[in-house]
Q: What sequence folds into this?
């Protein structure tokens, strides 16, 4: 099993499984516990962490993709480019690669192919507008969702500046079928490189085959440079001619003949969708000087034979205009031809020779400086100059001091070098050139900078969107804060308003909420209720009180606690303490015959009916049958006894518990100041709903003036005085 499975990185992302393995990275499925969503995490393989080239490619991808925000490009949520792990956190896409889909269905209907290609072109148009060229577009790097949405991924070798070159040895073998001729030959690349790859993918979709296939990757690369593919309609005749023209135009060997932009190709596809009979004429009209691109021979891999078709047509027209009647004049024509040969042919040959000599002389003057010098200047020799090394010097100073007779031209470019510094020159130093030749320089205009916006105290997703818009790459770090709300930005490093290089990554510090302090639970066993609550409060802990009867622990003291003393818990946590209500009273308590006992301490004892003091009382009577103390007493009992003359009354507790209606149940504890009524009961709130959450206790006999205390879930709710 992969060692990251089941691990949590950055205290946030829980790795659950591997969903893909590439050449330099592994893609995991993970759960982001901060925002409760599934994400994909692309992690640079451990063996490449020390490889500068792979780290550079990974950093390039992060820079490129964080600058993009478009529906057909995979979203990136988080980036980490430092430490012992480099990774990108991206949206998790539940789908298949376009390659997997093409392998399964082989040939697509041209309408379906156009639907997918248009989405790819939208993504590329968005990237190209921001100066990003993907350079590795292929079905393997494109995800297809269940609803048909396309998502472009893997900007691992994307470039952020134009005209960067790359040799084929830097390319993966799987990409060679989709690379452009300029990539295969190591020439400079730009947006036209991506357009070529889109053309190859369109070709594959509508024909079911790749335009070039061979036994080795090098052979395929050579075919990308030299060979021409079959026309798509030769393979699939159901393709509209307009779609074929779009495909071939996108795949032109010369970038100048391809579409100028992804948007232009998109518009042509829309035109064919609106009218399948649309024809653009791209295969019949070629700019001057570029005819060789479309001229063909007898090879089946050529495009069209434009010149041959025209010649045949001209020949047919010539044959159709011949008049058979003129055959009778053949003899007369032969005589005329004989005279022409004898008289005019020598003259024409002489003139032709003279003209040929003139052409040769002019060509020699144009293409051979020595001849030109002899004709125009006699024996004067052309002055040659050796080009100096100007790299690293200031262009303005070089131009000011120029005494070599050379003409200096410059092209500005972003660079870490100071502004005005010459980065490169063409021709290179040491080259011998004619005086007056042009020397081309690439001159630094310095590093592109951007100002860090103030995103302090903003919700982190909104803050990150601002960074996206400015093209700033970042990594996030969560820290505790007592003043900034959870998931809001605390600060950035560097700070807001700092000017940084456009390729500099900043750190965004996000609040994880208040800092959690760990405390030790104190021992509160056998302490009084008030003392225990105070002791816990001293450690910033909250007491959750429960009550129950106990034979061994005095009433009002702590029987048990949870967690136990010595346990480490977070500050502010709750400690459950159980408080004794004393011994549980017996159901059949007999009257206390002790005359010293305070009257009224036993709820079943009525001092007014004591047989020792009341001469009318029945000495054999059971006190439990006294109608003043037992609601179920015999109604025929002593009618002369007046309830108003007793100290005890029938009592029933009625309480409105509607404020606890959100709970499923509550624990009720009832106790009296004289310990005459103690009760613990768990109430389900559903049982009280029909009565509007009104709780009614059973009826008991209590002495007037008794204080009844009601606790709800261990907290004193209210006190009541019996009257």
A:
């Amino acid at each position: 099993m992969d060692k990251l499975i089941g691990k949590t990185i950055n205290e946030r992302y829980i790795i659950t499984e591997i969903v893909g393995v590439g050449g330099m990275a592994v893609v995991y499925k993970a759960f982001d516990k901060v925002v409760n969503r599934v994400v994909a995490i692309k992690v640079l393989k451990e063996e490449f962490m020390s490889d500068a080239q792979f780290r550079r490619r990974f950093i390039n991808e992060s820079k490129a993709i964080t600058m993009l925000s478009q529906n057909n490009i995979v979203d990136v949520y988080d980036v980490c480019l430092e430490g012992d792990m480099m990774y990108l956190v991206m949206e998790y896409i539940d789908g298949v690669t376009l390659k997997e889909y093409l392998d399964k269905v082989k040939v697509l209907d041209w309408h379906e192919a156009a639907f997918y290609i248009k989405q790819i072109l939208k993504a590329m148009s968005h990237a190209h507008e921001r100066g990003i060229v993907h350079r590795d577009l292929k079905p393997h790097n494109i995800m297809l969702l269940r609803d048909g949405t396309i998502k472009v991924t893997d900007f691992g070798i994307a470039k952020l500046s134009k005209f960067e070159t790359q040799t084929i040895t830097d390319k993966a073998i799987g990409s060679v079928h989709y690379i452009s001729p300029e990539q295969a030959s190591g020439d400079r690349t730009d947006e036209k490189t991506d357009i070529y790859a889109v053309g190859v993918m369109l070709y594959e979709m509508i024909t079911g085959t790749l335009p070039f296939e061979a036994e080795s990757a090098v052979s395929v690369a050579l075919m990308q440079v030299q060979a021409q593919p079959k026309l798509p309609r030769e393979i699939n005749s159901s393709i509209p001619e307009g779609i074929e023209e779009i495909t071939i135009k996108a795949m032109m060997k010369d970038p100048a003949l391809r579409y100028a932009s992804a948007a232009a190709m998109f518009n042509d596809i829309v035109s064919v969708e609106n009218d399948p009979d649309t024809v653009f004429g791209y295969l019949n009209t070629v700019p001057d000087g570029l005819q060789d691109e479309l001229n063909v021979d007898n090879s089946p891999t050529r495009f069209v034979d434009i010149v041959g078709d025209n010649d045949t047509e001209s020949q047919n027209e010539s044959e159709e205009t011949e008049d058979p009647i003129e055959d009778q004049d053949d003899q007369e024509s032969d005589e005329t031809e004989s005279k022409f040969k004898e008289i005019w042919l020598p003259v024409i040959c002489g003139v032709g020779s003279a003209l040929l000599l003139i052409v040769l002389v002019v060509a020699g003057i144009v293409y051979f400086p020595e001849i030109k010098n002899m004709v125009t200047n006699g024996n004067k020799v052309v002055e040659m100059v050796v080009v100096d090394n100007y790299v690293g010097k200031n262009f303005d100073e070089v131009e000011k001091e120029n005494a070599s007779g050379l003409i200096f031209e410059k092209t500005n470019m972003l660079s870490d070098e100071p502004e005005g510094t010459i980065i490169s020159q063409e021709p290179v130093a040491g080259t011998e050139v004619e005086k007056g030749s042009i020397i081309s320089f690439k001159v630094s205009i310095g590093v592109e900078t951007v100002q860090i916006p103030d995103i302090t105290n903003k919700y982190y997703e909104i803050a990150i969107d601002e960074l996206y818009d400015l093209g700033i790459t970042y990594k996030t770090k969560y820290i505790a804060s007592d003043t900034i709300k959870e998931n809001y930005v605390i600060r950035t490093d560097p700070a807001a308003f700092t000017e940084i290089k456009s390729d500099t990554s900043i750190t965004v510090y996000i609040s994880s909420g208040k800092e959690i302090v760990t405390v030790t639970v104190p021992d509160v066993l056998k302490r009084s209720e008030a003392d225990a609550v105070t002791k816990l409060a001293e450690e910033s802990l909250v007491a959750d009180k429960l009550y129950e009867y106990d034979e061994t622990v005095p009433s009002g003291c702590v029987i048990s606690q949870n967690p136990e003393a010595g346990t480490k818990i977070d500050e502010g946590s709750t400690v459950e303490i159980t408080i004794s209500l004393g011994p549980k009273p017996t159901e059949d308590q007999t009257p206390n015959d002790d005359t010293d006992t305070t009257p009224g301490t036993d709820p079943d004892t009525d001092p007014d009916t004591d047989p020792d003091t009341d001469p009318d009382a029945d000495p054999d009577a059971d006190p439990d049958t006294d109608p003043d103390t037992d609601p179920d007493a015999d109604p025929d009992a002593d009618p002369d006894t007046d309830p108003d003359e007793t100290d005890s009354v029938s009592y029933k507790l009625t309480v409105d518990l509607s404020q606890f209606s959100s709970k499923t149940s509550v624990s009720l504890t009832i106790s009296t100041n004289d310990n005459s009524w103690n009760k613990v009961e768990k109430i389900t709130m559903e049982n009280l709903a029909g009565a509007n959450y009104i709780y009614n206790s059973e009826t008991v006999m209590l002495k007037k003036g008794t204080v009844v205390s009601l606790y709800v879930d261990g907290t004193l709710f209210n006190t009541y005085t019996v009257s």
Q: What stands out?
A: Confidence is low (pLDDT under 50) at residues 160-174, 286-337, 365-380, 589-645. The longest strand covers residues 13-21. Residues 330-367 form the longest helix (38 residues). The CA atoms of residues 451 and 498 lie 5 Å apart.
